[in-house]
Amino acid sequence: MKYLIVGLGNIGDEYADTRHNIGFRTLDAFAKASNAVFEDKRYGFVAHLRVKNAELTLLKPSTYMNLSGTAVRYWLQKENIPVEQLLVIVDDLSLPVGKVRMRGAGSAGGHNGLRNIESCLMTQQYARIKFGIGNDFPRGTQVDFVLGHFSEEEEKLVNERLEYVGEMIKSFCLQGLDRTMNQYNKK
Question: Is the pLDDT of residue 108 over 90?
Answer without folding.
Answer: no
